[in-house]
Write a structure and sequence with these properties.
Elements: H1 7-12, H2 22-30, H3 37-41, E1 47-50, E2 54-55, E3 65-72, E4 77-82, E5 85-94, E6 97-104, H4 107-110, E7 118-128, E8 131-141, E9 152-155, H5 164-178, H6 188-193, H7 199-207, H8 212-242, H9 255-259, H10 268-281, E10 288-293, H11 299-312, E11 316-320, H12 324-337, E12 346-349, H13 355-366, E13 371-374, E14 388-394, H14 401-407, E15 414-419, H15 425-431, E16 436-440, E17 451-456, H16 460-472, E18 476-480, H17 488-504, E19 512-515, H18 522-530, E20 536-539, E21 552-557, H19 565-572, E22 583-588, H20 593-604, H21 608-619, H22 621-625, H23 644-660, H24 670-679, H25 685-688
Parallel strand pairs: 2-3, 6-8, 10-15, 10-16, 11-13, 11-14, 12-13, 14-15, 17-22, 18-20, 18-21, 19-20, 21-22
Antiparallel strand pairs: 1-9, 3-5, 3-7, 4-5, 5-6, 7-8
Helix pairs in contact: 5-7, 7-8, 8-23, 8-24, 10-11, 20-21
Length: 690
Amino acid sequence: MIGMKREDNLSEKSIQYVKGVGEQRAKLFRSLGVETVLDMLYFFPRDYEDRSRIVSIAQCREGETVCIRARAEVNPREQRIRKNFSMFRCAVSDATGMLPVLIFNQKYMAAKLERGQEYLFYGKITRSGREKQMTVTEIESSNQESKLCGRIVPKYHLVSGLTGKICMSIIRNCLSITEGQLEDVFSPEFRERYQLCEINFALEQIHFPKDAHSLALAKRRLAFEELFLLSTGLRMLRGNRQNVTVTPFLNTDCISEFTATLPYELTEAQQRVVREILTDLKQPRVMNRLVQGDVGSGKTAVAACAVFIAAKSGFQSVMMAPTEILARQHYASFQQFFAPFPEITCVLLTGKMKKKEKTAALEAARNGVSLIIGTHAVLSEELQISNLGLVITDEQHRFGVRQRAALAHGQETNMLVMTATPIPRTLALTLYGDLDLSVIDQLPPGRQVIKTYGVGEHMHDRTYNFLKKELDRGRQAYIICPLVDPSDVLEAEAVTEYAEKLQNRELANYHVGLLHGKLKEKDQIMEQFSTGELQVLISTTVVEVGVNVPNATVMIVENAERFGLSQLHQLRGRVGRGSFQSYCILICRSNSEIAHQRMEIMSKTNDGFVLAQKDMELRGIGEFFGTRQHGVPELKVANLFTDSGLIQSASNASSLVLSKDPDLSQKEHFYLKERIRRFFSYESKELVFN
């Protein structure tokens, strides 16, 4: 389209050279992830302040923050309160009455006022004795175009050195650069079909809404755009994978040989998921499946079924764990699983292995060992696998799209992703749209419900008296000591100091172990706890994922308010793995309403899916997953809970577009393809498009 400005140009134009920025402010904006003009346009407000309703002085109520149009009756008088701090006082009036206004320590603002002139005043109504007054935060002449009063005003996440006024001024300058001619990724016909406003209107109104309706239109358009780009990109990634052919697994019928050796019967949910996996593996197309299961639902046994079939079909498997402790535990579990089958062999590969052990593991991989289990070390180019058929990643929310691809070492192979982070199905399909979804929604019979209690700091002594009773009965316990600062050095110091304090007082007569991220002997400590040599394990969050000690019956979490619900649920899942009644005690040192809500929810339910839903509602999706940890772009406008209708609409639109042009090769979709690449970031574009 003639005269349209492409995003390509704006994505290359540095923010530094926009009027009002310069080198120093450019550095501040870079710290916020804003480097180009396009970044600035998509640097959306975190919130809005509605100053659009102008009230009369008579309508002002104490405690309200309002906007009034009034005339200055006198010039402001300065009153020095203390050194370097002044208050300016002025009486203003409208047709309904008189009101004193106060301006604190802002001489430049007071200097705007001239007796007899009319202005817009924005501030909070307070009371001094029997008299109402306004503490002013903004003043504008009523004769000029309103920028901060009498309208909806955006609020941005900023850093020291940047103000809302500065940010708004720079965004206005960026909008003037586009001249309202930014190319729209959606055609007029498309916008009409899905009732979307045009992109230039949306970007202007998201920053400077003229009214609530215009803001709603802008939000809807930009949220739809995010969801459409996300859905289309993931569908293309999934489509690319489904078009890839692999050698099918031929011996899937022998799975009963393996399940017959298990000391328990698989639940119906486990059996269903195993069938779904085997159906995939029998096909000549590559499998990409996400298996969701709550804590203790038996995901490892399901993974073992897949590895067994791979081995029986002549293929090798790789399993990647997020921590060395969990990798070693998986290694022990799989050796036990396959003990009745000497032909199925396992090897462990981690970054901290001795050179001799690592060399032997790499040699075994080259020679056809059935299963390689490890940490990030399995991403090493040194690892050469002769006949890779299956890759399993544990706790997928810790590894993104790129890591999953790197695991395959350039080979097209079947991918099985296991996660203990329960996510509502519709949300999982959005976040992991490149994967098929299986859910283990049933726990093995006989598992006792873990009794959970949220207590205040005043219950500390009672909590530890209860702990000692459990220890005297021969049980074991975890104590989690979270930290404000994630620094390794501070972590070691803080948890060590806390452990010494307990060992010298409450737990003086018990065998106590210490576990933190910096400790070199953490595997040895974990082994001592697993064998019962240690009665209590004091840790940061190292035990959050996967560790299995059936004799552990007590989980105490200090400063539980510092964790989200899902993380607390993962920690709680470390106990209750044996036949004994287990307990989780959450010691909360916060009086905030959200903290108390979390403790109450944890006490009432053991359902991980319910907790995940509540966690995301309380903390927001970004904090729940962490920035881009799940391997898809961050959503700035769309809300994956409240925008369910928009999600469905965007998904339908994406499906329709790709049904007509699966790889977006048609000329009319060239810009859309570029936009998706940019949305997923340039680092991952090769994964979205071949």
